[in-house]
Amino acid sequence: MYDYYLGGWDNYEVDRVAAERVIEVHPQVRVSARANRAFLHRAVRELVVGGIRQIIDIGTGIPTSPNTHEVAREIAPETRVVYVDNDPIVATHAGARLTNTERTGFVLGDVRDPKAILDHPTVRELIDFDQPVALLLVAVLHFVRDDENPAGLVATLADALPAGSHLVLSHATDEPYEAYEAGRTDVKAREGVVNVYKSATATLNLRSKAEIQQLFGPFALIDPSVVRVPLWRPDGEVPGAQELNNIIFYGGVGHKAGDLGRRLS
Length: 265
Hints:
Layout: H1 2-5, H2 13-25, H3 29-49, E1 54-58, H4 68-73, E2 80-85, H5 88-97, E3 104-108, H6 114-119, H7 121-126, E4 134-138, H8 150-159, E5 166-172, H9 187-197, H10 209-214, E6 220-221, E7 227-228, H11 241-246, E8 249-255, H12 259-264
């Protein structure tokens, strides 16, 4: 569905039907998806410029170019990237497009089982846990229910990462944009979108800005903290308040204490 929102071609009829149902009740979802993807690209560039040379991208989805390793290697060709997703179809696409690239691997794994991801031979082969790592959880944790303890999953992953590592996180919300005076929660649209995802492989769990901030746990937020994704260190024109209200993703980047983290903050 996400690939379809982005205008990609690697999706299936069942995905397109479900995605169109979401678009029907929330036409701006495509704008949100593209803004979220642009946030990922900016964050990756920022971290690689700052010295990060290894990335774990959890919940990568069907590869949509430019992918994380492509963005990173425009700056540092030696960057190592491990992609993780729990969908076997994604694994098939990754085999064709991602893992035939040197210093790039794919793991069939689920963020709900972080230890299995961390212990996977591909992760252990490509990632040096004595050196800083960028952990990407972009548009992932809103598919994790409260009872599955999303903050605890982040904490487990964080424990394995050394000082100077970073977390890039984005998450869907139903909160209106705080700087838009006419903003309000569109209850009908929210319920329509949530209902579509009840028939998907994972439910959609929308959270407030305050709840999303808490997910960073041991990662200290760097400027500009958690914001609507187009506002995170923009490299072009910033949307107006009404458009920001229609973009449903908050995003931010956090770091674990260390020299690299202090330099990027």
